Amino acid sequence: MSGCEKISAQALAAPSIVAEKAPLFGALDLGTNSCRMLIARPVGKEFEVVDAFSKTVYLGKGLESSGRLSNSAMRRTISALHVCQNKLRRNDVKHFRLVATAACRQAVNGRDFVKRARKEARLKLEIIKPAEEARLAVVGSASHVKSTTEQVLVVDIGGGSTELVWLDLTGVRPEDRRGAMMRIPGELKKTKEVDGYAGVKVVDWISVPFGVTTLKDQFNEVEEDKAAFAMMSWYFEEFIAQFGPVSDDFTSRNLPNFQIIGTSGTITTVAATQMGLPRYDRKRVDGYEMTSALVEAEIDRYLLGGPEWRAKNPCIGEGRKELIMSGAAILHSILSVWPTDLLTVADRGLREGILYSQMVKQGFLR
Hints:
By secondary structure, this protein is α/β, with parallel strands linked by helices. It folds into two domains: 5-131, ATPase, nucleotide binding domain (Nucleotidyltransferase, domain 5), CATH 3.30.420; 134-345, Nucleotidyltransferase, domain 5 (2-Layer Sandwich). Helix content is 39%, strand content 20%. Strand 3 and strand 4 form a beta hairpin. The protein is globular and about 55 Å long.
């Protein structure tokens, strides 16, 4: 994203804005693969992106085998952070939050890297816990929840971890459900009470310590495409077998008002290729809806075409022909456990969650 792009803030139940001198807000998400930043200001019922940055840095490359961030990966990332620092300074951004996720959490030298980033790039990164990462994913994708939805599963497939959050919205008025998800405070926690959660009940949440990069690295020695996919799917499904509501008859099959919102490069890519886009188009992908059957058919097409077909697909490419299959294995596992007729694709995530949270907290969006 670059230039000036408007992103809907419909998740706010009753938004208002202090129009005079609305300040700029910044949000940086440093993940296992990418360094991404947005700078935006609140405008009416939306926020307007005035600057952005996205760079694939592969910070977590080799982490699964070594347990450490490599020197080359840290150099690439510091270079990207210099660009982010310049953008924040040039735009005179006073309100910002800069977070690092799974790679820095899991690496034995993750905190050392944060100190290095502060010294060399003059940016103070915050390594957030999985609970906070899960909450921000919920806030960032809240604008896609439907007023009729009573049970929602938010899925965020990252490079080094995958967050799943199951919310019960039956205690919230339909017209308030988006705003209620936006106002979930603090680090996410399971609760049977609605106090402090604006009527939202957190049924369950989990952070699986595998994302597209770390899961792929786990099965690097399996060369055959379909065999690797099957093994990754089975392995990931073991981690989520006990996730979700505990009642035996409480399944997605008998929940007419159940919705899955998926936010990740994997899910947006599946949507883009399923639509047959000649190149990725965020405006067409964000908010697109698919059934489990459509997703599975698209994954089958990836397997049938093989690495060469995936490399030639304009929405996948050479650099992601392998990573898309580890992400597809994660998505396949989730939909095997919780099949749905409504998977809503969200081309948004932690950065948007950070921006919304800051703007609400500062009183610019209510």
